[in-house]
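User: I'm designing a mutation panel for Lysyl oxidase homolog and want to avoid disrupting the core. Could you give me a predicted structure to guide residue selection? Please restate the sequence first so the numbering is unambiguous.

Assistant: Good idea. Sequence first, for numbering, then the predicted structure tokens:
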Amino acid sequence: MGQCRGFPSKQCLLLLLLLLAQLNWAQYEHWSYLPGYPEAAPQVFQPPQRAPNVPKIQLRLAGQKRKHNEGRLEVFYSGEWGTVCDDDFSIHAAHVVCRELGYLEALSWLPSSKYGKGEGEGIRGIEGRDFPAPRNPWFQSQWWSWEASCLVSPFPYNPAAFPFIFHPQNMNIQVEDIRIRAILATYRKRVPVTEGYVEVKDEGTWKQICDKHWTMKNSRVVCGMFGFPSERKYNTNVYKMFASRRKQHYWPYSMECSGSEAHISSCRLGTQLSGSGKNGSCAGGMPAVVSCVPGRAFAPSSHSGFRKAFRHEQPLVRLKGGANTGEGRVEVLKNGEWGTVCDDNWNLVSASVVCRELGFGSAKEAITGARLGQGMGPIHLNEIDCTGFEKSVTDCKFNTESQGCNHEEDAAVRCNVPAMGFQNQLRLSGGRNPYEGRVEVLAERNGTLRWGTVCSHNWGTVEAMVVCRQLGLGFASHAFQETWYWHGDVSADDVVMSGVKCSGTEMSLSHCRHDGAHISCPRGGGRFGAGVSCSETAPDLVLNAELVEQTAYLEDRPMFLLQCALEENCLASSAHNTSLTSGYRRLLRFSSQIHNNGQSDFRPKNGRHAWVWHDCHRHYHSMEVFTHYDLLNLNGTKVAEGHKASFCLEDTECEADVQKQYECANFGEQGITVGCWDVYRHDIDCQWIDITDVPPGDYLFQVVINPNYEVAESDYSNNVMKCRSRYDGQRIWMYNCHIGEGWGQNSSQTQNFPLGKSSGAIPEL
């Protein structure tokens, strides 16, 4: 991120001092002391009064926004409004801002300038070494910096309504300040760590928490923070024996959680323990222990130490469009149809119910405003209100009416997931930045661990997606089969993994199919090692299924009008034997409207130098294989040949606030902008399937976008559209068109999809 223009350091210091002086400390019950404040002070800290000569700092949320509780953060200083630099900003700094503005908490924050570019001077934060911030009795405090925009809960803060909430988040709380330390040998060898002492870091020293006031609700919150959906009982006798043998260092506080908190810092600070100095005592007690239940995807198995695959039960909730495990747009299955959730009242409690339901921990972030991409279809739920203990988000209170909601308000979530250590088994080497490079894997060879390359034979975007996810670098933007321009570690040139084939859902490259110890790589490693480049965002193409269903029809077209189509292989092979003067072809025509619902533009894989000029249609085609149109029998066998082969990509139409960027004419740039769609009308050349040789019967009509995964997308599962079709030799009926998985893969799932519109009653054959 570039340097922010800012005030001189003294002005920064003064500004932040004034803001801290202004904060309403009465909202933060149980602050025990500031630096120099007596340790024996009462637990309810009386807030200092702002001196008359201390000016009030004003904050506001500005910019191009949809709701009152979101926007670009601006500060009024020295008589003018200015923006705030987002360097080193975190969700905890957003909590401070949102509470100062009168809200309960921050739901999320985002970098850059989503709400438009601000005017005036900018400011930036300073680090803790320049000014001592108030000390948080839970965690070691640090200074924070500001960011450019935040989203906040739409509930004004009311301390009386939330007496259990303890709020030290106005400091930079890091999850590393609390840990589960495995004590028993059985758990020390396991990944992830699911059982052990709860320890907090206090002034550089790890300390245990006395179990005298510890409850299972506390355990639930701690387990959720570390990515586990639930807690369980443990063998106390073993831990009592272990605790009696060693001297413990106790943290001098207890805590009281309700069990619905997403983070331990939201719990109430409980009784201060007796003891000397900065250590508490725990007479008659022992260190608090948690035992967590991992989700099925993270449960250790006795054979491999990790359960690579398992059969999913039919879920009611899923996450779509997220770059990393445990994040995505929330979608709910209702009446056999997947739909989204409106972000009205969306908060961490409801988001945590979704996360736990899916086998993750509590929610790290409740994301609003379709920041992880817009969905398609119905909006099933709105104004969700959960207690935090529901088994499913569908058990929460909600409003099924979605008036006023649209897909720009689709809710999403980032969940806490267990620390599996996958990112330590892989690295990118030689790239110009941390987001690209040759893929190097840590593998065991002859009894020792060593770094080596991955064979690039058949290496593609799907495999690259797994690498980027494993490293926490987002989506793959490109997969490379040659990496001679990236000078990696010479000692890691040898190939240690070959034959890699991924489905795209794996959390680690080692979970993909591969050759194991028997390496087979004809070109070798080194300059031919597999490489990737990663990106934080990706496009997401979705076909409008309803439009296909509504526009499908048959046309008998004379051969003399199909010369261009014949030249571009848009007809079945039998067309070459059809008379040019008297012959005709029967064509199944339809319109296709392809939306980009992702977070970045869809651009062709090849640069302009590789585009192909098509003389018949008088423009360049940037992708030879962009979409497959197929007619299949009920066994899935292709029965029709001849369809549109290559495409020119452009923005035909866009949403109201989106500007067109791509146009095919005059050798223009090609692509599909976020929020735009590319339309191929039913009446243009090659927008068909040639069914001249197809006999009457029942068929599956299928459209697959980006079938070879040449361009990375955030979600490939919605690239397939399927329809049922019936052809009687003269007419065709298209019905039950839908996106994604369904009866096309398993006929027993047919009941899940209601009958759609069709061209009249469907006859019996």
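For picking mutation sites, this is relevant: The first strand starts at residue 58 and ends at 62. The chain has five domains: 58-125+144-151, 164-293, 317-416, 422-535, 541-752.
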